[in-house]
Amino acid sequence: MLLSLAQSIQERDIVTYEHSRRVAVYAQRLARYLGWSRREARDLALAALVHDLGKTWIGNDILNKSAALSREERLKMERHPITGARILIGYEVHPFYVEAVLYHHESWNGQGYPARLKNEEIPFSARILTVADVYDVLTSQRPYKAPLSMDEARERLLAGSGTNFDPAILQAFVHLLDITPDFTLTQHVCDISLKNLRQPGFYNMFIAGSSS
């Protein structure tokens, strides 16, 4: 079901899908580094693959806007975790995936959204996903920004330690960056056929292709 929903993202917006694909790899790597089992890390990668599912309900005029968003547009954007979580609930997926999607924009200091959770109130899965998500945003080309280098992104992440990010998780991620010179994945349009999403071996293809 999650891979079918990932296909719907790919069909709606290839840029969001490619972002989600990279975030899934970063989140899986970080989870494994933090001691999660292969299965647990795989589940988090699947959650990451659909973490922006709610954006499929937002118009391109907002998603691709190069100027600053208006207050109304930003409020629409900030509803995407709720929309995504509701879609997952409708398909009766496990609560683990729902929580990761719903809370991936919460901040360690309680100033995130949609629930303003703080510190350990935020599910551990979402705290990992937040770091992976922001790292990819920083290092990717967007309509409103140029990509940062790995070193520049590293410094921006460290500046958010204890405010945006769980300090312990962030420190682990930064160390992972330091010991993995080619950590950042290349930004490109995925050439995997849509039908491959439903093939039994797609998940392994997804990880192998994203790690190259």
UniProtKB/TrEMBL annotation:
PROSITE patterns: HD, HD_GYP. SMART domains: HDc. InterPro entries: Cyclic_di-GMP/3'3'-cGAMP_PDE, HD/PDEase_dom, HD_domain, HD_GYP_dom, HDIG_dom. Transmembrane segments: none annotated. Residues 16-138 form the HD domain. Residues 1-189 form the HD-GYP domain. PANTHER family: CYCLIC DI-GMP PHOSPHODIESTERASE TM_0186-RELATED (PTHR45228). This is Uncharacterized protein. It comes from Dictyobacter aurantiacus.
